[in-house]
TrEMBL record:
<dbReference type="Pfam" id="PF00950">
    <property type="entry name" value="ABC-3"/>
</dbReference>
<keyword id="KW-0472">Membrane</keyword>
<keyword id="KW-0812">Transmembrane</keyword>
<comment type="similarity">
    <text>Belongs to the ABC-3 integral membrane protein family.</text>
</comment>
<keyword id="KW-0864">Zinc transport</keyword>
<feature type="transmembrane region" description="Helical">
    <location>
        <begin position="239"/>
        <end position="257"/>
    </location>
</feature>
<keyword id="KW-0813">Transport</keyword>
<feature type="transmembrane region" description="Helical">
    <location>
        <begin position="215"/>
        <end position="233"/>
    </location>
</feature>
<keyword id="KW-0862">Zinc</keyword>
<protein>
    <recommendedName>
        <fullName>High-affinity zinc uptake system membrane protein ZnuB</fullName>
    </recommendedName>
</protein>
<feature type="transmembrane region" description="Helical">
    <location>
        <begin position="43"/>
        <end position="73"/>
    </location>
</feature>
<feature type="transmembrane region" description="Helical">
    <location>
        <begin position="127"/>
        <end position="145"/>
    </location>
</feature>
<keyword id="KW-1003">Cell membrane</keyword>
<dbReference type="InterPro" id="IPR037294">
    <property type="entry name" value="ABC_BtuC-like"/>
</dbReference>
<comment type="function">
    <text>Involved in the high-affinity zinc uptake transport system.</text>
</comment>
<dbReference type="InterPro" id="IPR001626">
    <property type="entry name" value="ABC_TroCD"/>
</dbReference>
<keyword id="KW-1133">Transmembrane helix</keyword>
Length: 261
């Protein structure tokens, strides 16, 4: 197997394993639009990283984390409805990123790679960044799993029981921000949220427990990665969109299989 294909496969499988359980919380808590907002803001991180000449993955990670913190702070102010606020930040950060890139002199940027991913251009350093970031998210998610479930099932009851609901909610948003930042290289800023939503949505239909849904989402995500890379290799299609297409096929297959009684 060529090195670039091996790097792409390892990075894609690692993302799928982490995106499964994390995406389950996105589906349960109806945070899909929040994920879209963070993914759009990733392009602003790319632009600032190029402008300041720093590592792009680090710049995008810091940018997404700051946007997540800003969202939490603004939501507490209750000046605007959450969906309105998310819409403003999503389109505002994406447009600002494009403007900054246009004003950056002597820098050539392949926007298609950032918008839709360039998985087959993965390097060893990219792989290390992705695996490191996803490992941190996986460890933190295992530590916070029960608390995240508690605030998802009944937030008010969790608050009565003494859980720091606001801090746990912020931690979940930060975990999503990190995953989106490191996944940008794989499926691009416009398709990142699809891996956080489609496999968990497919697994939800047949899962009986939260753990079953999280595990099923990871398995379906891995199947989508393998299928998408196979399609890209044989049909010469873009790797990121091919993975999303395979994820949608997995979702349609899950819908067509009758649920167990």
């Amino acid at each position: 197997m060529p090195d670039f294909l091996l790097y792409a496969l390892l990075a894609g499988l690692a993302l799928a394993l982490v995106a499964g359980p994390l995406g389950s919380f996105v589906v349960w808590r109806r945070m899909a639009y929040f994920g879209d907002t963070l993914s759009h803001s990733a392009l602003l991180g790319v632009a600032l990283g190029m402008l300041l000449d720093v590592n792009l993955t680090l710049a995008v990670t810091v940018g997404c984390v700051l946007i997540a913190v800003l969202l939490v702070a603004l939501q507490h102010k209750e000046w605007l409805a959450s969906d309105t606020l998310l819409g403003i930040l999503a389109h505002g950060t994406l447009s600002l990123g494009l403007v900054v890139l246009a004003l950056t002199e002597n820098v050539r940027v392949d926007l298609m790679a950032y918008l839709f991913g360039d998985l087959l251009a993965m390097t060893r350093d990219d792989l290390y960044w992705i695996l490191g970031g996803l490992l941190i998210v996986l460890v933190l998610m295992c530590v916070l799993w029960r608390r995240l479930l508690s605030i998802t099932v009944h937030e008010e009851l969790a608050r009565v029981e003494g859980l720091p609901v606001t801090a746990i909610r912020l931690a979940l948003m930060l975990l999503i921000a990190i995953v989106i930042a490191v996944a940008m290289k794989i499926v691009g800023v416009l398709l990142i949220t699809s891996l956080l939503i489609i496999p968990p949505a497919a697994a939800q239909r047949h899962a009986r427990t939260p753990e079953q849904m999280a595990l099923g989402a990871s398995v379906l995500g891995c199947a989508a990665v393998v299928g998408g890379l196979t399609m890209s290799w044989h049909l010469d299609t873009p790797a990121g969109p091919s993975i999303v297409v395979c994820a949608v096929l997995c979702f349609m297959l899950a819908l067509s299989v009758p649920r167990r009684a």
